[in-house]
Amino acid sequence: MANQPSATALLETSLPDLTLLSKGKVRDIYSTSDQSALLFVATDRISAYDVILNNGIPTKGQLLTSLSLFWFKKLAHIIPNHLITSNVSEMPPEVQKYADQLEGRTMLVKKAEVVQIEAIVRGYITGSAWAEYKKTQTVHGIPMPTGLVESQKLPEPIFTPSTKAVQGAHDENISPEQGSLALLLSTSLVSNHLVISILAAVQLLGQDLYNQISSSALQLYKTAAQYAESRGVILADTKFEFGLLPPSPAAPEKRQLILVDEVLTPDSSRYWPLKGYTPDKPQPSFDKQYVRDWLVASGFRKGLESGPEGKEGQGWTIDEAVVQGTRARYQEAVDLLTK
């Protein structure tokens, strides 16, 4: 059967003895008997333009998890992260019973309050940044040098934060100045409800935390980009997410900033092959741009999030050739970066 490979993708987790707290575009998040930890499970679901597609990419969850684990270890000297363990045998007993389903695609992580900004760092001008630059010679409101061409390396990486959107909505780009006024925290790692006003957030967190996030994100990007280039891969841009740990009894007024969620995967980053890189045109990629391009070519546009024209409500199903091509690109990126 032509669609057999997609049938093996894990689109839904089934852990009946655990409480499902959140079902995101890719990850399912569960509570455990460890009150200070959460279970992250990376499924094989894939989204494009904030739309979850009907079929997934087989083994994508394992590939994303393995790459996140690689980067968490490699970048730990810059900032701590939320990883406790990826070894199912070291997780609570109620988790271990689902080892067959979870092996290779799950992480036990520290609970944290997520800072409601996606910390986007761009080292090359492409995508929405290129579209804006052509109109205004700015990127997220930041003036850029004249004469840049598509896919060109920027003189220095730039921090272009985005507000975090609820599922199904689009993230909103904001300027760095606006970002310092949008450090809104959710009540937990899995909630999207805003519990404090912008003014209260600024009073509580202030410019210092924003500066800490932006400087950490830039340092993470520069370190990762330098390593990736040594492996024949360009890291064009990426998205980091940060959280705050609960205060400790020894320092009740201080909360540690940590790196959370996934990190530097093809879902959250734009990876290009270094070989053949030529500015002034779009680049081939190791990320889900391949899926985005297919979706647009298949007729996707704003207003058709629920399915093709005339088939609204049925969702979007990726062609099998695109499934296979996407998986191959993800696998190649992991191999180049980690082996």
From TrEMBL:
Native species: Leucocoprinus leucothites
Name by which UniProt lists this protein: Phosphoribosylaminoimidazole-succinocarboxamide synthase
Documented EC number(s): 6.3.2.6
Short name of one Pfam family: SAICAR_synt
One GO MF term: ATP binding
Keywords attached to this entry: ATP-binding, Ligase, Nucleotide-binding, Purine biosynthesis
Coiled-coil region: none
Listed pathway(s): Purine metabolism; IMP biosynthesis via de novo pathway; 5-amino-1-(5-phospho-D-ribosyl)imidazole-4-carboxamide from 5-amino-1-(5-phospho-D-ribosyl)imidazole-4-carboxylate: step 1/2
InterPro entries: SAICAR_synt/ADE2_N (IPR028923), SAICAR_synth (IPR001636), SAICAR_synthetase_CS (IPR018236)
Lineage: Eukaryota, Fungi, Dikarya, Basidiomycota, Agaricomycotina
Domain of life from the UniProt record: Eukaryota
PANTHER family attached to this UniProt entry: PHOSPHORIBOSYLAMINOIMIDAZOLE-SUCCINOCARBOXAMIDE SYNTHASE
PROSITE patterns: SAICAR_SYNTHETASE_2 (PS01058)
Recorded family membership: Belongs to the SAICAR synthetase family.
UniProt GO BP: 'de novo' IMP biosynthetic process
One cellular component (GO) term of this entry: cytoplasm
NCBIfam families for this protein: PRK13961.1, purC
Boundaries of every SAICAR synthetase/ADE2 N-terminal domain copy: 21-297
